[in-house]
Amino acid sequence: MIIKKQSIKMNEELIFELDRSDPLAGQRSQFSLPDGVIYLDGNSLGALPITTSARLKQVIEGEWGKELIRSWNTSGWYEMPRRIGAKIAHLIGAQAGEVIVADSTSVNLFKVLAAATQLRPERRLILSTSDNFPTDLYMAQGLIQLLGRGQELRLCNDTEVLDNINADTAVVMLTHVNYRTGRMLDMRAISAKAHEVGALIIWDLAHSAGALPVDLTGAKADFAVGCGYKYLNGGPGAPAFLFVAERHQANFSQPLSGWMGHNAPFAFDSNYTPAEGITRYLVGTQPVLSMTALECGVDTLLHVDMEQLRRKSLQLTDLFIRLIEEYCAGQGLTLVTPQEHDQRGSQVSFQHEHGYALMQALIARGVIGDFRAPDIVRFGVTPLYLRYADIWNAVQIMADILSTRDWDRPEFKQRAAVT
Ligand SMILES: *Cc1c(COP(=O)(O)O)cnc(C)c1O
Fold it and tell me: Average pLDDT of the chain?
């Protein structure tokens, strides 16, 4: 490792000082993290909260095991989608009653996109970005095909969104923070432009909810969806959430008209009548165990000042970028995350020709990030449980792997199913 003696000392002291004076340092104890791991993938699967296992055991053995079916009424199972939705609402600048937990992000996007397109029947265009997370584009393609009304999904570059919104646009469907580059779009400006031309806006908050302050009400957003297993720490495959602004809720009932979205599921009526409010976005019976884990995850964020979280996130990502410049210069890494704070989410990504092998070599040394095809190494920054020293150590390990070409081994080039 080629490191200037002087700069190690200076930087290490600075890092220790940053951790010592970090007002969020105590939050790490909310999580169970294995020794010897620097976890930079909380944007793909959030860490395990310490409360989750015991709470699940209680729900399984006490509520399911002893109370059996009575728990739907006596243990609050029935209310879970609305109750956890109200907690998430608090994190994304929405009102309780505008957010509900259900299904996956993909399915929720289908529901809100169906609603939004039906609210603008005379317009044909759905605008999104070519680098949007593919499932969002796939769901739009499937809906367009199903509706058979000649709608068109138009894609533009994520720096040219404002210029592509016009009077033909029915719906603008965007991910707030790009999953690959970490670029954050201007939610207020884009929402305002959509409304100015009479279009509706849908935000995908997969990489925003729990990662940074979001103000859906302030931005006058129409619809939103988001993910439970990333920054909300809800566990693998956790249920997702959706937001529908109160002003739109009564105007459309989504097409996946399952009984839990009926206004009286236990009347067992043979005709569908949508429930009042956000409940009409439910479909079938909720996965109680998964919702239990999600609630533990969401609870880790509820008492955290999101502005403080954001400040730490930016300091951690700034530090990451600066240390990579210092210790990994000339090693083929190209930063793809914007340097500007107002355009950066809570991750840092680099292109590298041998990105897959580099990430495997990092993981073998306990630095867990992930790889996004074709050539991006991605590092998620979760300020609740990351320390400044973690960033320092991760960069030192990366510098060593790059300078020794440790990544250049056959075992690091074997592609797994999940990258
Ligand atoms: C992670 C992610 C999803 C995940 O969708 P699921 O249906 O929950 O698998 C969707 N959209 C974006 C932008 C994501 O980053």
Answer: 96
Distance from the CA of 105 to the center of ligand 1, in angstroms?
A: 5
Find the 165 Cα to ligand 1 centroid distance in Å.
24
Query: What are the pLDDT digits (tens) for 289-305?
Result: 999 999 999 999 999 99
Name the active-site residue from 123, 180, 378, 387.
378
Of 9-18, 208-217, 360-369, 409-418, give the lowest mean pLDDT range: 9-18
Which of these, 164, 165, 182, lies nearest to 43 by C-alpha position? 182
**How many distinct structural domains can be found in the chain?**
2
User: For residues 133-152, b (16+ Cβ closer than 10 Å) or e, as one string?
Assistant: beebbebbeebbeeeeeebe
What CATH number is given to the structural domain containing 177?
A: 3.40.640.10
Measured torsion, CA atoms of residues 36, 40, 41, 43, in degrees rounded to the nearest 10: 150
Q: For residue 72, is it within any domain?
A: no
- The pTM (predicted TM-score) of the whole model is 0.96
Supply the DSSP symbol for 332.
S
- Catalytic residue at 230? yes
Residue where a domain stops, chosen among 299, 323, 343: 299
The residue range of the domain holding 19 is 5-50+305-413
Supply the residue whose CA is at minimum distance from atom 6 of ligand 1: 105
| 243 and 204 within one domain | yes
Q: Which residues of 242-272 are buried (b: 16+ CB within 10 A; e: fewer)?
A: bbbbeebbeebbbebeebbbbeebeeeeeee
- Where is the domain boundary, 299, 327, 356? 299
The tens digit of pLDDT for each residue in 19-39 reads 999 999 999 999 999 999 999
Residues above pLDDT 90, as percent of the chain = 95
Q: Which atom of ligand 1 is nearest to the CA of 227?
A: 8
61 assigned to some structural domain: no
Whether residue 263 is found in the same domain as residue 177: yes
Sign of the torsion formed by the C-alpha atoms of 329, 333, 334 and 340 = negative
How many whole angstroms from 291 Cα to the centroid of ligand 1?
A: 17
Catalytic residue among 110, 229, 241, 281: 229
In a domain, 401, yes or no: yes
Mean pLDDT lowest among 7-21, 134-148, 272-286, 341-355? 7-21
Q: In degrees to the nearest 10, what's the CA dihedral of 359, 365, 369, 374? A: 0
Query: Does the annotation mark 133 as catalytic?
Result: yes
